[in-house]
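re the bet — no i am not wrong, look at it urself. input seq straight from the record:
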Amino acid sequence: MEHQTHFLKLLDFTPAQIQEFLDTAADLKAKKKAGIPHRILEGKNVALIFEKTSTRTRCAFEVAAQDLGMGSTYLGPSGSQIGVKESIADTARVLGRMYDGIEYRGFEQARVEELAQYAGVPVFNGLTNEFHPTQILADFLTVQEHFGKLKGIKFVYLGDARYNMGNSLMVGCAKMGMHFVACAPKKYFPDQALIDTCQAIAKETGAVLEFIEDPMAATKDADVLYTDVWVSMGEPIEVWEERIHDLAPYQVTKTLMDNAGPQSRFMHCLPAYHDHKTKVGKEMGEKFGRDAMEVTDEVFESEQSIVFDEAENRMHTIKAVMATLMK
């Protein structure tokens, strides 16, 4: 992949480059299933910086590194001094001397961009407030597996579209010529400047971007209904009341899936509050008298739900990113 060193946001890549990541991921996934070793980064090492904890992203990076023949070091929220006792620039230059790649999951996009500026080795965005590009590759590989294509797929994101998931899915859909719909109250739509950037990309790729407040109108004939938790990591618990009030009409229900049609699939980047089996789900569910938040248990556990294929694909797509950029 020419001229690309880092994986910071999908805006940095052409549609052909994004497709190349997906093709590589599909190839590596097939090799893994067939038990064919692919230790193409034998002897290299990757540092995994997590200022926010994680299950899927951490496991995906660790297994992917192992499969590629690499060592990995996990630096959790308490495990590194980044930005506390040592600046990001200094941390980047230290780790860049010891490692062949650095993953960062944390707060502002500016932090991962600064790491990339100083590290001297490839840097991978494992999630920032603004973007979550490895998740989108996993989502798109999953869509491709189920529908055989990306172009023209009607992809509806319901809920709070102002942050990393809404932003990144809009960018990804614009790049890949898809039909993206953000379905939420107006104040939860993505940032206007990013919408403008994506509309310009859509003009070149044939993508369609829509912003619709009515869930029934938005989900009509949709291929994918996608949602995410209403309150994300690090936000205060008080936010729940406002979000539930605003976003309850956007819960993914059987009614919305039926409205989309039998071909439709349900996706979620996980974790999901679809029952009371989590501490937060139980606490908030009881407090607000709800069985579920952003998706009903019926939809989450249905045949149309492909959330676990999607979760597995985090590993295969992250592996493709490291295999491509660390060669």
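see?? Residues 15-33 form the longest helix (19 residues). told u. also The radius of gyration is 19 Å. so pay up
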